[in-house]
Amino acid sequence: MKVLVLNCGSSSLKYQLINMETEAVLAKGVAERIGIAGSFVKHEATGKEKVIIDEAMDNHKAAIKIVLDCLVNKVHGAISSMDEISAVGHRVVHGGEKFAESVIINDEVKATLEECSELAPLHNPPNLMGINACEEILPNVPMVGVFDTAFHQTMPKSSFLYALPYELYEKYKIRRYGFHGTSHKYVAMRAADMLGKSLEDLKLITCHLGNGASIAAINKGKSVDTSMGFTPLEGLAMGTRCGDIDPAITTYLMEKENLTSGDLNNLMNKKSGVLGISGVSSDFRDIEAAVSEGNERANMALEVYYKRVKKYIGAYAAEMGGLDAVIFTAGLGENSVETRQAVCEGLEFLGIKIDSDKNNVRGKETIVTTDDSTTKVLLVPTNEELMIARETKALI
């Protein structure tokens, strides 16, 4: 069984073709600048040369057609015909309250995703475009939706409700949803395997630290709390997102700076975070380089970032009444030795003792704490595509 995994953004399309008998990646790539001049596809089939196809892609349907053509190409393809594709798994950012697990896509599901687009206007519309385009080109191939929000639907009301008038939750479904659920679920499962224990016996904190970042408290295999909220803006300080702030700041800034709601949304989502504090970049490599040159604002940006992550770890350990392991994943969590070290400093009271030699590693599954640490710290590279493929296989 071969599953094609698609992750559609507003102007991009990431994909992987996975053989589910072995879970080996047969091909992967990305279509960029969809609907924009200069569009192209980077494609690589396992064991073959990478290729770049410069071709106009006016929409997602055109992009998917080029991707499929790449997959069956006699020179750089991975399969002999499209008939080998058994199913397509689509990453969908927001499933609202209606989807607590992955589903086979039908018209009713698509209608619900349209409704959820108001909650995720930057993500759900392109996700839907990819689904519709795929259905046109592969009409007889089953489609599965795998939701970023689904894993967090196990949160109790005490975790997902905001202290607003309850009727606003009933009327508008204003609540904490959480995101990166596919990643949190995958690394939690891998951590249990690495520890040689059942996931149902563990209290875990998973830290998905990339340009967008979130933390989840996972008790007995279920998400009980997470840092992102109604939107991906809440929680940690991120690359360009402010994370938690006093909500009164929003109205204050609108009055003082004469900002529209759109202006404010842009400021908090695209001009804040470590970029806003440092004035240097949203890329942590650039910020770390600036710190080495004595840039005080860059150093402060990192301190704010580390402290926010540490604060959530402490809060979730208290919420769960204990902790067995902390897992770092995503771009920064997997590759920044300094981030893991800085976040874990001062957490010795939780039984965490970082081994500096073990921690000096990037992008590799490993335990980075000393042997006598009662709480383990793990590095687990995330694999959302494989998780989506597994969910798709299970349903099909």
TrEMBL record:
GO terms for cellular component: cytoplasm. PROSITE patterns: ACETATE_KINASE_1 (PS01075), ACETATE_KINASE_2 (PS01076). The record marks H180, R241 as: Transition state stabilizer. ATP binds at K14, H208, L209, G210, N211, G212, D283, F284, R285, G331, L332, G333, E334, N335. Keywords: ATP-binding, Cytoplasm, Kinase, Magnesium, Metal-binding, Nucleotide-binding, Transferase. One of its GO terms (molecular function) is ATP binding. Mg(2+) binds at N7, E384. InterPro entries: Ac/propionate_kinase, Aliphatic_acid_kin_short-chain, Aliphatic_acid_kinase_CS, ATPase_NBD. The keyword DNA-binding does not apply. Pathway: Metabolic intermediate biosynthesis; acetyl-CoA biosynthesis; acetyl-CoA from acetate: step 1/2. One of its GO terms (biological process) is acetyl-CoA biosynthetic process. The active site is at D148 (proton donor/acceptor). Its main location: cytoplasm. The keyword Kinase applies. Substrate binds at R91. Mg(2+). Can also accept Mn(2+). Its cofactor is Mg(2+); Mn(2+). It holds the Pfam family Acetate_kinase. Belongs to the acetokinase family. This is Acetate kinase. The gene is ackA.
